[in-house]
């Protein structure tokens, strides 16, 4: 009887605690939080969406979260998708891409109990808007060092998805770095040609743009436009141009064409962001930033990249972390 009584008391305490946690909304573990990631494209795009999905997988594995995802969400559905998850009581609603900024900040004030976190976000109008931003210009700085060593014609081509500030900044840094390193290390003058696809998904457009740029003399291409870049890689392969991959390790797509890539370690980036959120350290009403210092950018080299290039990238990485690179000067074209 005593054992039965003790067991009864213990079960009563357990269920009372469970009931209290449910009533108060108290969360004791990462798995207690309802988290979702909204993606603008497919998780198998070998670029932006795949990179973000890898972050989700890492959080679920290493932090114990149960983050869900929804892919291929179109711009006309951004706002309704945010509202849908907020109405269902999700604690953290993440969305991958600057293009989600406007919708997130429009919906956030109506759902103060939810946190809206745009990856690459640049706008935070309310306390529950907590965008996170990888300092992509630090990654494009490394890509520019590589391009400076690869070009033989002295003409490089760059294409961005859309001309938002973050995109313009990173392309400015890439081009400025390629020009300076080519001049300083090789005595070569480099000309950079730039365009914007105004699309993240038009593979055929990417191929067309790349073909035109190569025909006009560019021998090194750099595309940051998600699936658009896949078409560009195909064009570079067919026309025997060189390609510097970005955001993911794209070397395996065409090993003789994509000679090196600067990958975003979004496993580390997401774990940094989500762990800070769980600890109450992710700041609301401001952009939360991470970069080389946090270890989220990683170079991947193909067999044709020699030691000199690798050493230059390593030295550039250390200089950037030490604060020795004037990125603001690159933004203004004074580098």
List its salient traits.
four-stranded parallel sheet; 335 residues; 11 helices; Rossmann fold; 17% strand; alpha/beta; six-stranded mixed sheet
Strand and helix map with partners:
Layout: H1 2-24, E1 35-38, H2 48-63, E2 68-70, H3 78-87, E3 92-96, H4 101-107, E4 115-119, E5 132-134, H5 136-150, E6 155-160, H6 165-186, E7 191-196, H7 203-215, E8 220-224, H8 228-239, E9 242-247, E10 258-264, H9 266-278, E11 288-290, E12 297-301, H10 307-321, H11 327-331
Parallel strand pairs: 1-2, 1-3, 3-4, 5-11, 6-7, 6-8, 8-9, 9-10
Antiparallel strand pairs: 10-12
Description:
The protein is 45% helix and 17% strand. With 335 residues, the chain is of the alpha/beta class. α2 (48-63) links the parallel β1 (35-38) and β2 (68-70). α2 (48-63) crosses α9, α3 packs parallel to α4 (101-107) and α5 (136-150) runs parallel beside α6 (165-186). It starts with a helix and ends with a helix.
């Amino acid at each position: 009887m005593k054992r039965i009584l003790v067991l009864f008391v213990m079960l009563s305490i357990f269920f009372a605690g469970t009931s209290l946690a449910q009533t108060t909304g108290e969360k004791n573990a990462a798995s207690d939080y309802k988290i979702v990631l909204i993606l603008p494209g497919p998780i198998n795009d070998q670029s932006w969406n795949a990179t973000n999905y890898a972050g989700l997988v890492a959080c679920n594995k290493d932090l114990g979260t149960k983050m869900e995802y929804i892919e291929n969400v179109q711009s006309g559905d951004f706002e309704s998708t945010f509202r849908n998850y907020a109405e269902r009581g999700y604690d953290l609603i993440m969305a991958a891409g600057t293009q989600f900024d406007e919708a997130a900040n429009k919906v956030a004030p109506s759902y103060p109990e939810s946190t809206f976190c745009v990856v690459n976000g640049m706008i935070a109008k309310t306390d529950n808007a907590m965008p996170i931003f990888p300092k992509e210009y630090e990654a494009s700085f490394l890509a520019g060092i590589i391009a400076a060593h690869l070009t033989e014609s002295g003409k490089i081509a760059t294409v961005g998805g859309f001309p938002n500030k973050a995109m313009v900044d990173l392309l400015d840094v890439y081009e400025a770095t390629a020009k300076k390193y080519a001049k300083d290390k090789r005595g070569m003058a480099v000309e950079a040609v730039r365009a914007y696809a105004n699309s993240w998904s038009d593979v055929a457009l990417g191929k067309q743009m790349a073909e035109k740029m190569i025909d006009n003399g560019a021998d090194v291409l750099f595309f940051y436009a998600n699936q658009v870049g896949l078409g560009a890689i195909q064009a570079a392969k067919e026309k025997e141009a060189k390609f510097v991959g970005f955001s993911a390790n794209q070397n395996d797509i065409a090993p003789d064409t994509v000679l090196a890539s600067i990958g975003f370690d979004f496993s580390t980036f997401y774990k940094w962001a989500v762990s800070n959120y769980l600890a109450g350290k992710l700041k609301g009403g401001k952009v939360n930033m991470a970069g080389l210092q946090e270890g989220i950018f990683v170079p991947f080299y193909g067999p044709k990249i020699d030691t000199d290039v690798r050493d230059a990238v390593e030295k550039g990485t250390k200089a950037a972390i030490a604060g020795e690179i004037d990125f603001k000067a690159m933004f203004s074209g004074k580098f």
